[in-house]
Structure formats: C-alpha cells, structure tokens
C-alpha cells in the first residue's frame, strides 16, 4: 500500500513560499553543494551536499505519483509537460484546463476532490510513495486522515509572511512521531510519521 507523504521546503517560521508565490531562498539548498543530482523527469541538475543528494535519491527511488493543486500547476506552466520527478501527476482542480502541455509526464486532472485524487494516485503508484506537493491539498489530506507522513526541508530563513504549510486545520492538535533527521547545508530534512 502506498504511503501518502506531504513534502515541501519550508522557512523556520512555517512558510513554503512568499506572498507572491516565489520560493526565493527556500530553494537555495538545491545549488549549494558539490554533488550533482539529476532529476529523472526533466534532466535538470541540482548541486547539493552528499546528505541532500542521498535524501533526494531515496525520494525519487520510492516515488510512484505526485498530487498537487491547480495553483501550483498553473504557476509552473504544467512543468512544460515534464515534471522533474518523472512520475504521473494528479492535479486537483475544479475544472480541467482545455489544453495541457505535452511532455514525458502523464498529467491527470481530478475534478471530484482530494480523496479521489489520493485513490487514483495510489492505484497508479502501487507499493510506491505518493507525494502531496501543495499545502492546501496536504491540509485536506491531513483533515481527512489520509496523510501518513510529513517531510519538511527546513531552511534557516524567516520569511515573515507568505503561504503557510499548514493553516486552519479542522482537527488539531495533530500528533507526529519523532523526526528522522538528515542534515544538509543550509537545510535540514525532517520526516515525521503522523501518529494514528
């Protein structure tokens, strides 16, 4: 059975992007090391530390599908049809776009809600992990009891304002297990299992 994991880079004060959707310093860790990591979906290369490269390699090896929201899809232009992770992407939206970019990534538009997106993504992923890469979708998964773990690449910056990773949870507090910790340079990768 697939693990459903929310995964985002986040500032110390809890934001995954600025008010203008820009990630700015939150993604600097992708270019502050000596070890090359090539993303399988689009061939883009990051230069990270050995620890961060190991973290990324494990993620890609375990990944079977990705779920995101329409805002991220629109913001990235649908990744030009080729998502860096190289796995099928399920976009939760009220209305599917009339056209979508053609590329290496199978894009699926889910118009009947987050539980349906999770069900479809887990079917495609099989035993592999499903990553939720949008804060609103991650919150909905958590509220519905569908989220198994939260991964945070914690970046030592205070944005002061922006888009929070978790906000307005319907059920709280949500207890998490103790973190697994991987220390990179200018980033700490944390993985928390959601306590059932």
Number of helices: 4
CATH architecture identity: 3-Layer(aba) Sandwich
Biggest β-sheet: strands ordered side by side in the sheet: 7-6-5-8-1-9-12-11
The rough form would be described as globular
Q: Roughly what fraction of the amino acids lie in strands?
A: 25-35%
CATH topology title: Dihydrofolate Reductase, subunit A
Global mean pLDDT: 95
Biggest β-sheet strands, sense, barrel:
8 strands, mixed
Regarding quaternary structure, what we see is single chain
The sequence of SSEs as H and E is EEEEHEHEEHEHEEEE
The CATH homologous superfamily corresponds to: Dihydrofolate Reductase, subunit A
Structural class: alpha/beta
CATH class term: Alpha Beta
Distance between the termini: 16 Å
The value of Rg in angstroms is: 16 Å
Query: Which bin fits the share of residues in helices?
Result: 10-25%
Tell me the domain tally: 1
Low-confidence stretches: none
Number of strands: 12
Task: Describe the model.
The structure is a single chain. By secondary structure, this protein is an alpha/beta fold. It has a single domain, classed as Dihydrofolate Reductase, subunit A, CATH 3.40.430.10. Helix content is 20%, strand content 29%. It has helices at 50-62, 70-75, 114-125, 135-143; strands spanning 4-11, 15-17, 35-38, 45-48, 63-69, 89-92, 107-110, 129-132, 149-155, 163-164, 180-183, 188-193. The protein has an eight-stranded mixed sheet, with helices on both faces. The protein has a two-stranded antiparallel sheet with strand order 2-10. It has a two-stranded antiparallel ribbon with strand order 3-4. Helix 2 (70-75) links the parallel strand 5 and strand 6 (89-92).
């Amino acid at each position: 059975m697939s693990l459903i994991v929310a995964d985002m880079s986040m500032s110390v004060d809890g934001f995954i992007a600025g008010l203008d959707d820009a990630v700015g310093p939150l993604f600097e860790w992708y270019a502050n090391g000596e070890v090359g990591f090539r993303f399988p979906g689009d061939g883009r290369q990051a230069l990270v530390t050995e620890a961060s490269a190991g973290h990324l390699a494990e993620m890609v090896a375990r990944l079977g599908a990705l779920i995101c929201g329409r805002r991220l899809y629109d913001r990235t232009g649908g990744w030009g049809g080729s998502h860096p992770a190289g796995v099928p992407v399920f976009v939760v939206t009220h209305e599917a776009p009339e056209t979508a970019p053609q590329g290496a990534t199978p894009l699926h538009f889910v118009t009947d809600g987050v539980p349906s997106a999770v069900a479809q993504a887990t079917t495609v992923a099989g035993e592999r992990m499903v990553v939720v890469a949008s804060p609103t979708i991650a919150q909905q998964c958590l509220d519905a009891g569908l989220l198994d773990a939260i991964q945070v690449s914690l970046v030592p910056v205070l944005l002061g304002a922006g888009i929070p990773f978790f906000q307005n949870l319907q059920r709280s507090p949500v207890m998490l297990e103790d973190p697994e910790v991987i220390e990179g340079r200018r980033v700490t990768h944390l993985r928390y299992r959601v306590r059932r």
